[in-house]
Each structure stands twice: as C-alpha cells, then as structure tokens.
C-alpha cells in the first residue's frame, strides 16, 4: 500500500493484554469486524496471532505492532527489526514502532531503526512519538506517518495525577504542533475517547484518529461511567 491510498478517518485499536477480559485473537477479530462495519478506515492490532486473525476477518488496512518488553529498556512497541519483520510477514499494511528518543533494545537510534526498516521492507512506517522533536526526527528519517501514541507515556512526558492515565484527557496541543512542522500525515492517538476529541484533533491538523479504549476496552468504558455516576451519588 502507498501512503496516498490511506483514507482519512477513524482507526480502531483492537488490543487486549493477557490480564484483560477480552484477551484472545477471536475476540479481537470480532472487534475488528465491528470496527469495519461501523465505518472505520483501519485498525491497530498487537501480537502476531491477533494480526493474523484480524487480517483474515477484515479488508481495511491493519497497523500491526508487537508490544515486546526488554530488560532495563523503555521502548516496547515494536522496538527492534525482529518484531518489525514478524509484523511485515503477516501482510499488515503499516507497522507502528517506538520512535521516542530513547535508545532501542539493540542500541539503535530511531533514525537508524527507520532507515533499516525502509531499506529492507516494503511496509509503511508509523512513528509513535511523545514529543514534537521526536516527530520531526522520525519524519526526517523517513517515517510515513507520525502518531502521538506515546505522548504522556514516556518517562519525560508522564504527568503525576490521581486520575488513571487511561481516563485523562488527550494532548491536543501536540497534534497542532506536529501538523504545523511536519509534511507527513499526523495521526492523533492516545486517550481520544470518542468523536468529540477526535474532531478537535482533526481541526488541529490531524490526518486521522486512533481510538482504542473508548471503543474496545469495556472494563475501562465501564470504569469511566462508574466514576462519573459514583461522583454524583456521593453528592446526594
Ligand atoms: C501507550 C501505549 O502503549 N499505547 C498502546 C499502543 O498501541 C495501546 O495500549 C493504546 O490502547 C492505543 O495507543 C490506543 O490508545 P487509547 O486506548 O488511549 O485510545
């Protein structure tokens, strides 16, 4: 797939970790089908079994990732060529990688990493960044899409708060800053709960928006509703 073929709109992140109630490729494939039925232009999927199941179930483009932790290392979203090659072998149209400034587990910088992917594989690269500087560096290194995925999650962008991070507001300022300085498509991702903030991201210059928890993590959707309802009940 070429970058100009990518439609603008909503990408639904269909992910569940082993400790989540909907963990399992069958569930994630059904989530992806639901996303496609609802008009999503693509999906974002973690792990090879889930990507394979989703590729069989839907025709819309897949952003594939592998969350792989390495000892004493922050980058965990598709952090080395090993995971990138595995994602590419599934036929996923796009691979998303950690494009923070933090050194990857194999010692590479983001710039080297993107260069190596582009020299070896015919796959679109989405750079998951946490700051404007990281976005510019990834774009200059050849990334096809720049996404705000890691904003609020890297050690230097994390904020102390009593509110669990998944219930915090998204960072709309970084979207405007990225769109202002970068000619590649900007993807708004990370706590974009529904269409309200998604539209604000588009107004701020985003090409598309990824929504995950707000659509595919029912325990977090429930928690968000319970928090609001219980806050009211405490006042009466
Ligand atoms: C930081 C990190 O590891 N983000 C992950 C990236 O793939 C996922 O856990 C998120 O669900 C995804 O980015 C979508 O975001 P949200 O679920 O907030 O709409």
Automatic annotation (TrEMBL):
It comes from the Bacteria. Keywords: Carbohydrate metabolism, Isomerase. The keyword Isomerase applies. GO terms for biological process: carbohydrate metabolic process; N-acetylmannosamine catabolic process; N-acetylneuraminate catabolic process. GO terms for molecular function: N-acylglucosamine-6-phosphate 2-epimerase activity. InterPro entries: Aldolase_TIM, NanE, RibuloseP-bd_barrel. The keyword Isomerase applies. One of its GO terms (cellular component) is cytosol. Its EC number is 5.1.3.9. It catalyses: an N-acyl-D-glucosamine 6-phosphate = an N-acyl-D-mannosamine 6-phosphate. Pathway: Amino-sugar metabolism; N-acetylneuraminate degradation; D-fructose 6-phosphate from N-acetylneuraminate: step 3/5. Converts N-acetylmannosamine-6-phosphate (ManNAc-6-P) to N-acetylglucosamine-6-phosphate (GlcNAc-6-P). PANTHER family: N-ACETYLMANNOSAMINE-6-PHOSPHATE 2-EPIMERASE-RELATED (PTHR36204:SF1). Belongs to the NanE family. NCBIfam families: PRK01130.1. This is Putative N-acetylmannosamine-6-phosphate 2-epimerase. It comes from Cohnella phaseoli. The lineage of its organism: Bacteria, Bacillati, Bacillota, Bacilli, Bacillales.
């Amino acid at each position: 797939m070429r970058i100009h073929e990518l439609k603008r709109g909503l990408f639904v992140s269909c992910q569940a970790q082993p400790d989540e109630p909907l963990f399992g490729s069958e569930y994630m494939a059904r989530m992806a089908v639901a996303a496609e039925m609802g008009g999503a232009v693509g999906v974002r999927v973690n792990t090879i079994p889930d990507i394979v199941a989703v590729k069989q179930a839907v025709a819309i483009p897949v952003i594939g990732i592998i969350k792989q932790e390495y000892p004493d290392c922050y980058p965990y979203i598709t952090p080395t060529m090993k995971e990138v090659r595995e994602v590419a072998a599934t036929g996923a149209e796009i691979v998303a990688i950690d494009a923070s400034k933090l050194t990857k587990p194999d010692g590479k910088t983001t710039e080297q990493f993107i260069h190596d992917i582009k020299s070896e594989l015919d796959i679109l690269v989405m750079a998951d960044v946490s700051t404007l500087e990281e976005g510019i560096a990834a774009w200059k290194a050849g990334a096809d899409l720049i996404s705000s995925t890691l904003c609020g999650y890297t050690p230097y962008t994390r904020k102390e708060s009593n509110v669990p991070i998944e219930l915090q507001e998204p960072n709309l300022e970084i979207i405007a800053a990225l769109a202002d300085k970068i000619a590649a498509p900007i993807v708004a991702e990370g706590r974009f709960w529904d269409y309200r903030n998604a539209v604000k991201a588009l107004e701020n210059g985003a090409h598309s928006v990824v929504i995950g928890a707000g659509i595919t993590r029912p325990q977090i959707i429930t928690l968000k509703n319970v928090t609001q309802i219980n806050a009211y009940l405490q006042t009466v």
